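note to self — DONT lose this again. spent like an hour looking for the file last time. sequence + predicted structure for the chain T wanted, 410 res
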Amino acid sequence: MTDVIYPVTVPKWGIEMQEGTVAGWHVEEGKELTRGDELIDVETDKIVNTMEAPSSGVLRRCLAKKGETLKVGSLLGVIAPSDLDDKAIVEFIAGFKPADVVSTDDDPGAPKSEQVEPAARKPQAASEPQHSAPRRVRVSPAAARRARELGVDISRVQSAGRRISPQDVERYAQEHGAPEIEELKSPAYEALPLSATRKSIARKLVEAKQQIPHFYLSIDVPMDAALDRRSEINTQSTQKVSVNDIVMRAVVLALQSVPDVNIHLVGDEIRRFRQVNLAMAVATDRGIITPVLHQAETLAIVELAKAAAALGERARDASLTREDLDGGTFTVSNLGMYGISEFQAIINPPQGAILALGSCEERIVPGAEAFQKVNMMRITLSCDHRAIDGALGAQFLSKLKVILENPMEL
């Protein structure tokens, strides 16, 4: 009776995807579901996607546990009618073989679990409803852990975003007077398995450092004029512009002026791009994510600030799509808000360079007639020496400095 059994398998979201990690089930084993209901969260390369139920029926088996990593096409669960004999389910699982899996890049924002076809699918009645269940707020692993520590019922916690965070749990605990649970005796350390996102980050960073001949150029940029320009913009707009937004807009202009830095290195070919797809590093509880501002050269400073804020929020809420992460031609990473004076970032291949921003620090420097106080930012460019030489990197940094010192064109 395999004609009424539907396998739920790890889909292939993107050409490079080889495996997925179960982030959590929305439906318990034995529960009835309708086609389109949220079924399971699968974490892939920097994205957590929600798979929807591909067919109505009962979730007869949950074969993959939370945190388990499986290859594309592997069996996650089985959907079948409630009255189907359990022996048929066992035989189906024992004899299951993954079919050829195709990529579903056409709609990265709406992944479905229909990449693997069942042996034969039961025709669906024309009258069967095809609606989706209401969207549910996701719970981050850190939030679930914090809820257990505080003795908070996580189902009662609400969040303004799409993902409940540890801060949401702590806020609920304070508002409802939840007692702090007693700290249990524990070993000297806690073993934390790497998430799928951190595994991907680790793999790519190791490859980048091993295969890319990095070199670094640093320059000190007086930021007083840029900070004044930012204050002027913020008095005229409801969308507040950050220092990072100012620098990113200047980076876009500098890349247009020095396009040989706005590149990919693919094999023996340098691909120089006409448009600037600016990637920005965002810190999340899953690791550093680099969403992309596509065609950033078309965005005025206020538009860029608005788009960057929206991307940052979606990165922290784990609601980015594959399109949000693909196509970056240059990356900006900023640790200045943490008081870091300078650092060297690792290039994100196939890009040819990445820019690291330090904090704005007040320094005493010699002026025309006397010493003066200046807000200075140290900026460091990491370059792939196979495609960008020292003179070209220096030309880009010099142009960036000129723009920030004369920011009216921003």
